[in-house]
User: Which sequence fits this backbone?
């Protein structure tokens, strides 16, 4: 455990910010500047790609490439962020697993509200399947809003009759547009990043008047997860979004889905981004890589023996 590291990061995330609501452009620029400070592994290659009808980043390990693809969905409240801002996460997952990754540049609100992001991530998954990739060799991963998209994209794929991926990894996922989790209240004083007001503002941009009481917006309280692949949910104990993960894990368990709820004490939202400066971040990414390696490899083996 690393009390000093955690305290430094907590203090950094509590730096005074400008008073009053920031414009969408300011939110996007601020998030880009913050995430540019995160460590990206040296032993990966990054190229521009297209998946479906959306731009994407292709991230590959320089050495030890293994069969398997991570389809990654970046965070940013459905309003900001990009494949570039999530590169510390995709890069570390790629370096640690040996799998290649595609990080999808899905459309953002308020210009493109719900369900545009899900349409884009589902389209990217369809494109992988249409290219000949076996679903048993694909895993979904994402952080924050993108963590929510790992679940809602899987719901949309199931509803469309598509085969589901081998596994899902979600870092601090946003899974409840109704904002009804107890942690929205009990953790607000200790969450160094989010306030209820902040997440409700960006959430409203994504909703654009849609009823939040539907599975594709609030899967933690409304989704039927029957038939889902194994899930790994990683979340920090200091997050107002903590109960998004705890309630989804309970729904998964009730639906007979393999699920690991991995809660780390005294760390903020998407703490895995702090790889290289926070021990818990590196350890969590190691656990995520182990989970992905076991699930994708096991699925490949099962598929081969069935053939």
Assistant:
């Amino acid at each position: 455990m690393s009390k000093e590291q955690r305290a430094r990061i907590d203090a950094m995330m509590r730096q005074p910010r400008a008073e009053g609501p920031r414009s969408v452009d300011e939110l996007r620029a601020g998030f880009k500047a913050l995430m540019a400070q995160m460590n990206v592994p040296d032993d990966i290659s990054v190229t521009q790609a297209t998946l479906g009808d959306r731009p994407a980043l292709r991230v590959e390990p320089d050495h030890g490439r293994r069969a398997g693809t991570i389809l990654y969905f970046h965070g940013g409240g459905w309003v900001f962020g990009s494949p570039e801002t999530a590169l510390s996460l995709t890069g570390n997952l790629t370096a640690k697993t040996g799998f290649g990754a595609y990080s999808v540049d899905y459309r953002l609100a308020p210009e493109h509200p719900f369900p545009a992001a899900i349409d884009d991530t589902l389209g990217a998954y369809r494109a992988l399947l249409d290219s000949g990739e076996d679903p048993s060799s694909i895993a979904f991963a994402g952080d924050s809003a993108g963590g929510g998209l790992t679940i809602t994209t899987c719901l949309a794929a199931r509803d469309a009759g598509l085969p589901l991926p081998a596994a899902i990894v979600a870092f601090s996922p946003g899974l409840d547009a109704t904002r009804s989790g107890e942690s929205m209240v009990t953790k607000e004083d200790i969450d160094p990043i989010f306030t209820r007001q902040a997440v409700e503002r960006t959430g409203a941009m994504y909703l654009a008047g849609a009823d939040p009481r539907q599975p594709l917006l609030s899967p933690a309280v409304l989704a039927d997860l029957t038939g889902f692949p194994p899930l790994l949910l990683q979340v920090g104990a200091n997050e107002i979004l903590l109960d998004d993960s705890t309630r989804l894990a309970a729904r998964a368990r009730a639906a007979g889905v393999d699920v690991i709820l991995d809660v780390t004490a005294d760390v903020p939202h998407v703490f895995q981004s702090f790889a290289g400066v926070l021990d818990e971040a590196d350890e969590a990414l190691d656990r995520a890589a182990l989970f992905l390696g076991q699930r994708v490899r096991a699925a490949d083996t099962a598929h081969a023996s069935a053939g």
Observations:
- Strands lie at 44-51, 54-61, 69-73, 100-104, 138-143, 167-171, 231-236, 259-264.
